[in-house]
Amino acid sequence: MSTIEKYVAVGATHSAGESNVPARTADQESTTASIHRKRSRQGKLKKVAVGIVFFLVIHLLILMIIGSLIPISKPKFRIQSVTIQDLNVTDDFDSPHFNMKLSSLVTLKNSNFGAYKFEDANLTFSYKGAIVGRAVIHKSSAHLRSKKRMAIDVILSSNSVPRDFNLSMDIASGILPLSGRSRLRGKVEYFKVVRKHKSATLNCTLAINLLGKALQRLRCD
């Protein structure tokens, strides 16, 4: 082989070697770029997650501050009306007695800008301090800025009234004085986040007309 042929062969081999280098470099660059893109996406996702958590924390703090500044009023708990049914009265001086079914409409006025949720409670009716009837008010809620109406029936009986309460005199007068009391324990809830405990008290006096079998007077504090 002549000197010229050797030179050409060596040049061809050198050129072939140089042509393989760019191919390996391109693969490496593609892999490196893919890794950089993956890391960039992960970094963006972390930033988005941190931003969402930060927003939620700030939002919660704002709601708690607003809830602490909003004044909370006590719900108004009242007996609105009463209907007398099945009234039976014995005006015997030695053993006076009465029993009746009292159908009452009870209202709960919530003037707050959050719902008022309350637990089970008792509504009791008394004659001069002696309980003559009791009904259960089941747990429920009153929507914001609303008045909740509840129909409650209770049987009243003088079986537990002591003999020295002069029941016979009230029966003879035709007017039976009663009192109704209840207490709701609940909480006012804002945005399902802020909760403040509040109780609602019912304190009413009634006068039942025994002859007319109707409510003569109703007053609630």
TrEMBL record:
> Could you tell me the keywords of this UniProt record?
Membrane, Transmembrane, Transmembrane helix
**Subcellular localization, as worded in the UniProt entry:** Membrane
In residue numbers, the region (Disordered) covers: 18-38
Single biological process term from Gene Ontology = defense response to other organism
Q: Please verify whether the record's keywords include Membrane.
A: yes
Transmembrane found in the keyword field: yes
Which residues span the membrane? 48-70
Question: Known InterPro entries for this protein?
Answer: NDR1-like
List the record's Gene Ontology CC terms alphabetically: membrane
| UniProt name for this protein | OLC1v1027525C1
The source organism is Oldenlandia corymbosa var. corymbosa
